Amino acid sequence: MQSVYGRPVVELGQGGSIPLCSVLAATHPRAEITLMGVEEPLSSIHPPDESVDAKEIADMALTEALFLQEHAAAPR
Length: 76
What we know:
Elements: H1 2-5, H2 18-27, H3 54-73
């Protein structure tokens, strides 16, 4: 993420998807679970006027592509 956004990554847990991690971990105990959200300060997440800047969507798509590329190339 830092290579796309040019800033250090911030890790925090919040939102309705967090309980899903427990279910996934119980179902697939060897899995590593990562949740990434597309959000920027003006998104207004979940009210009627919710929006996400198109650049944020593009940056997050690039972040996910780079993550998957690096993960695929990592030694196992």
